[in-house]
Amino acid sequence: PILYGYFRSSCSWRVRIALALKGISYDLVPVNLVKDGGQQCSAEFKAVNPMLQVPALKIDGITLSQSLAIIHYLEDTRPNPRLLPQDPKKRAQVRMIADHIASGIQPLQNLKVLKQMGEKKTEWAQNCIASGFQALEQILQDTAGRYCVGDEVSMADLCLVPQVANAERFKVDMGPYPTITRINKALLELEAFQVSHPSRQPDTPAELRA
Length: 210
Known about the structure:
By secondary structure, the chain is α+β, with helices and mostly antiparallel strands. It has helices at 10-21, 43-48, 67-77, 88-104, 111-117, 121-143, 155-169, 178-187, 191-195; strands at residues 2-5, 27-30, 56-59, 62-65. It folds into two domains: 2-80, 3-Layer(aba) Sandwich (Glutaredoxin), CATH 3.40.30.10; 88-193, Up-down Bundle (Glutathione S-transferase Yfyf (Class Pi), Chain A, domain 2). It has a four-stranded mixed beta sheet with strand order 2-1-3-4, covered by helices on one side. Keywords: Cytoplasm, Isomerase, Phenylalanine catabolism, Transferase, Tyrosine catabolism. Residues 87-206 form the GST C-terminal domain.
């Protein structure tokens, strides 16, 4: 497999966690989203993903983009360890939380949107994340065990950790979100979340390395 990604991309991080959890080795092709006006805009990368976004994964003779679609494919073809519960209600809760983050929070504060916001970008990102986290904190009070849904790591957790990292980067006050904070801390103790961390990638700048 070949993963096209960027060390700081939270969507790329989701896929790196999934690959690590499932023990899938891969080659990384770094796509720097800020250098050269954004390497994702090159003709070469447009041929990989016409949406000009990371991640993209070449695997089993196909090229997939969109992090959750990639994770669903990995789950369908390499089901161990399981990232979607077998119980239909828990499975729906996992998908709900993953979509809440992947559709309801992350796109509103991604690089493309922040460029449009100019000087107000930090305030905008903080507001988008805070409003999303207020809802997520409430949801997790009903679903959480050790992790987002019960005591097994799921696709929801793969979305949570990178989003908390974004929140910390934009200096969001995490005080009102004790459940999110507790789950995030527990997940960061797991090896798959550590090896996939943005501070430990081949394309991580020296000053940001762990």
